[in-house]
Specification:
Blueprint: H1 2-25, H2 38-56, H3 62-68, H4 70-105, E1 112-113, E2 121-122, H5 123-138, H6 141-155, H7 164-206, H8 212-248
Antiparallel strand pairs: 1-2
Helix pairs in contact: 1-2, 1-4, 2-6, 4-5, 4-7, 4-8, 5-8, 7-8
């Protein structure tokens, strides 16, 4: 009987952990991208479940969980996974927004990159997003995500959801930080574009006969590509620091 009881608890733990990780997997950076096949994501979900379940099993109180009901457990674990997944997905949105702002600043927003199955975005945005995700994976994203998923049970205990007001406050804070990060990443392109257009306006006033559009657009495009070549490593490093900071301390008012 003891063996049967322990086996039942192990399967229950694995199933509940699978629910949380499965919901988060659809939004996680790199592993949850739309270009990743569904079967691959399913295998990754099972792999993360095998790693996380033994670490969080002592935190499960089955008497308390059974009192909440199965439907409540299904909803709470799914919502918990979506919550932590959205928090990480906002960092990818920051890269996409930074790429869009940079592309508009250097007159490259009409050139679309991305492959089928991905959101259409300017070529610069696609380069920045793919570069950031590649950097995260090479820096051990899978290890950090495993620790983050284990930490999520301290942030949102099994079978529970934070108060709606606290969740709203946490979400607003993370969205604001995502926009701030996106603007910070795109700031070099915005500043360069502002200075360039001011100089172009002065030249146009001094030489009205000069067709500044024919001279200015190719110049700002070439300058934007050269600026991307120079600052992309630093830009991705700043974003990766923000990603690591979130993975180490995702609470930000949710507790």
């Amino acid at each position: 009987m003891a063996l049967v009881e322990s086996s039942r608890e192990a399967w229950q733990t694995g199933f509940l952990v699978f629910l949380r990780i499965g919901a988060a997997m659809s939004l996680l950076p790199a592993f949850g991208e739309r270009s990743v096949p569904v079967r691959v994501r399913l295998v990754l979900t099972i792999a993360f479940t095998i790693l996380v379940a033994p670490a969080v099993a002592p935190r499960f109180s089955y008497d308390a969980l059974e009192e909440r009901g199965r439907l409540v457990l299904l909803l709470s674990e799914t919502m918990a996974g979506l919550t932590i997944g959205i928090g990480l997905r906002l960092l990818v949105f920051a890269l996409q927004m930074a790429g869009t702002m940079a592309a508009q600043s250097v007159s490259l927003s009409q050139i679309f990159g991305g492959s089928p199955g991905q959101d259409p975005q300017p070529a610069i945005g696609h380069i920045i997003v793919i570069g950031g995700l590649a950097l995260a994976v090479m820096a051990g994203l899978h290890v950090r995500l495993t620790s983050f998923l284990i930490l999520s049970y301290d942030l949102i205990p099994a079978g529970q959801l934070p108060h709606s007001a606290m969740l709203a406050e946490w979400g607003i804070d993370k969205v604001g930080k995502a926009f701030a990060l996106a603007f910070s990443l795109a700031a070099p392109f915005l500043v360069a574009s502002l200075l360039y257009n001011i100089a172009l306006g002065v030249i146009n006033r001094a030489m009205p006969q000069l067709m500044v559009a024919f001279v200015g657009v190719p110049a700002i495009t070439a300058g934007g590509l050269f600026l991307l070549l120079l600052i992309l490593p630093l830009l991705l490093q700043v974003w990766h620091v923000g990603l690591v900071s979130f993975l180490e301390d995702p609470s930000g008012g949710l507790q």
